[in-house]
Amino acid sequence: MGKGSGAVHVVRVVKKHTDKQGLEREYRSAYLRRSFRSGGKVMNETVANLSALPWEVISSIEAGLRGEHLVPAGSRATIARSLPHGHVAAVTAQAKALGLPALLGPAGRERDIVFALIVARVCRPGSKLATTRWWADTTLAADLDLSGVSTDEVYAGMDWLAGRQESIEQSLAARHLNPETDPDRLALFDLSSSWVTGHHCPLAARGYSRDGKKGLEQIEYGLLTDPAGRPVAVRVVPGNTADPKAFENIAQEMKTTFNLDEMVMVGDRGMITSARIEALKELGGLGWVTALRAPAIKALAADPGPLQMSLFDEANLAEISHPDYPGERLIACRNPALAQERARKRGELLTATETELTKIRDAVDAGRLRGQGPIGVRVGKVIGKYKMEKHYEITIEDHRFTFTRRQETIGAEAALDGIYVIRTTVPHTQMDAAKVVATYKSLANVERDFRSIKSIDLDLRPIHHYTETRVRAHVFICMLAAYLVWHLRRAWAPLTFTDEDRPQPADPVAPAKRSDAATTKASTQTTAEGHPAMSFRSLLDHLATLTRNDVRYGTGTPTIPTLAEPTPLQRRAFDLIDRPIPLTLK
Predict the structure, then answer these.
(1) In the chain, how long is the greatest CA-to-CA distance?
(2) Nearest to residue 475, comparing CAs of 227, 220, 142?
(3) CA-to-CA distance for 537 and 544, rounded, in angstroms?
(4) What is the per-residue pLDDT for 345?
(5) Which of 26, 36, 88, 35 is nearest to 540 (CA)?
(6) pLDDT band at 1 (very low <50, low <70, confident <90, very high)
(7) Which of the residue ranges 142-151, 276-285, 529-538 would you say has the lowest mean pLDDT?
(8) In terms of Cα–Cα distance, which of 170, 161, 250 is closest to 469?
(9) Exposed/middle/buried for residue 254 (C-beta within 10 Å: 0-12, 13-18, 19+)
């Protein structure tokens, strides 16, 4: 290779010398040299002596040789555009760490749109039209080339996702419900509902509204999670489907789809009823952990039943058996705190009922209200409002109305305050009684997911879509976003008010308590690392202030994308998800 073809570089030489007077002198020189090969050896030749140039000019020459853009002296820096970046960058980084893009399907336009919908649902929930307008004002649309996406393309992406839902859920089930990660073979399941706008959705129907939207049509959906509450699958059913029937249909489908043999379904007593348990027995391959309803508990407590108050003299739980529950274990629990709360609530309801009934009696006595029919209507409204009819003896005549408390029924109910009975097929060799109780109480994890999906984080409701496919896709997008939020909340627990190390109570029946560290964090509003403690949503908003700026130096020059200087809190947020702050999302 000839001499003229080598690369040039700057070499700085600094020499120090002590003169006769003992003063140390420094001599600096710089040379522009070219490297080349000659006879198999690397040689250097000096192209120019730069020693006479100012040291800062030599630094500029070095920067130019490295390919950096040099700004002419006197040029004015202009920020052509500034886009929020930190929040979408953090959520995207976590999604990639979880392998979510590959989980969705092969790369393509539809996948990019769906991925952006999931990220946007975490960062800024909204309608699909609002979402497409929002992401255009962040780096999400710019980096995924989605600036010009129309709502029709969004709907096409949702249809594409609906066709891939089963395979995605199968992958999640294989990841989180396998014997290695879930040795107890537990799956949490619960149902919820959300109201629907419009009148054209075939899944919309009037049913029991958990949102308190009486008279509005709704859909119902069931969420399957692992024992820690990590979402795995979701199913949508018509809004007038009763909880037990919905559970039976969804459990059968999920067993078939995910091959959940020998799994134990954990659900509340309003969902896994005795009738549904019989259906599970016929289905085979599924166990259960649930609780008995009040009439069944009352039957066990009746003489000479096995549920006697003496069981709780030394402990708050005891294992009992009864021939009506063959092949099952019954764990009776008494929670004193729950007993006090139920007694307080019943007392308030009785007082409120009597206050209203007294007004009716006074009206009858004064002659302002007459006739069994009108009196009965007024009384029925009060009884229906407070649900206390069983605790009163009521007499209605044309000119007379009386009511008295049934102390025996009140006493019988009070005797069972704070008592619940868990029924399960899990054998002793797999779980002791305390662990069965803890497993049932872990339903709080899936209830937390519903709060996250419905209101706190993701705003699933109300449903604006009309077709079955897009309603199911919308709910599935919210579930995948909840999967992301689950991991982000856990990773960012040191920065939020989340209790990072909640103590395990010695008594599994006792209410959970916060750790001292969490109490300190809440009272001081400061994390252990000295950062201001935030809610999850506030942390995302703070991350959004980390912008990416298109900077232009001078006139007619290209823009240079540059990140704003991250705050210590923003740096820490990315450290906790073990990812550097990226300049772009791709």
Answers:
(1) 126
(2) 220
(3) 11
(4) 95
(5) 88
(6) very low
(7) 276-285
(8) 161
(9) buried
Going 173 to 178 to 181 to 187, the CA torsion angle's sign is positive
CB 416 within 8 A of CB 297: yes
C-alpha 540/C-alpha 518 separation (Å) is 21
Give 201-215 pLDDT, tens digit per residue: 899 998 888 888 888
Transcribe 551-584 into DSSP letters.
Answer: EEESSSPPPEEEEPPPPHHHHHHHHHTT----SS
C-alpha 558/C-alpha 85 separation (Å) is 21
**Among 586, 584, 585, 573, CA closest to 488:** 573
Task: Identify the burial level of 263 via C-beta atoms within 10 angstroms of its C-beta, where 0-12 means exposed, 13-18 middle and 19 or more buried.
Answer: buried
Q: Alpha carbon of 370 to those of 366, 378, 379, 397, 539: distances in Å?
A: 10, 11, 12, 9, 62
Cβ-based neighbours of 143, under 8 Å, separated by 6 or more:
584, 585, 586
Phi, psi of 424 (to 5 degrees): -155, 160
- 477 token code pair: 């997008």
CB–CB of 505/438 below 8 Å?
Answer: no
pTM over 0.85: no
For the chain, domain boundaries: 3-70, 166-291+430-460, 338-415
The rounded distance, in Å, linking the Cα atoms of 275 and 258 is 24
Gap between the Cα atoms of 457 and 118, Å rounded: 12
DSSP assigned state of 25: E
How far is 342 from 268, CA to CA, in rounded Å?
A: 19
In SS3 terms, 372-401 reads as HHHHHHHHHHHHHHHCCHHHEEEEECCCCE
CA-angle at 538, arms to 532 and 540, nearest 5°: 110
Q: Quote the DSSP letter at residue 329.
A: E
Q: Which CATH class is domain 166-291+430-460?
A: alpha beta
Q: Which amino acid is at 1?
A: M
Residue-wise DSSP of 480-497: HHHHHHHHHHHHTGGGBS
Task: Report the candidate in 219, 222, 252 with the shortest Cα–Cα distance to residue 238.
Answer: 219
CB-hemisphere CA count at 13 Å for 33? 15
Q: Is 462 left (phi over 0), alpha (psi -120 to 50) or beta?
A: beta
What are the beta bridge partners of residue 42?
37
Query: 3-class SS at 345?
Result: helix
CB within 8 A of 396, min separation 6: which ones? 372, 375, 376, 379
pLDDT confidence band for 540 (50 / 70 / 90): very high
DSSP-derived 3-state class of residue 174:
helix
DSSP code string of 400-434: -EEEEE-HHHHHHHHHTTTEEEEEE---TTT--HH
Tell me 507's DSSP state.
S
Q: Are 236 and 220 in contact (CB under 8 A)?
A: yes
Per-chain mean pLDDT for the chain: 88
- List of residues 6+ apart from 577 with CB closer than 8 A: 90, 93, 94, 97, 488, 491, 492
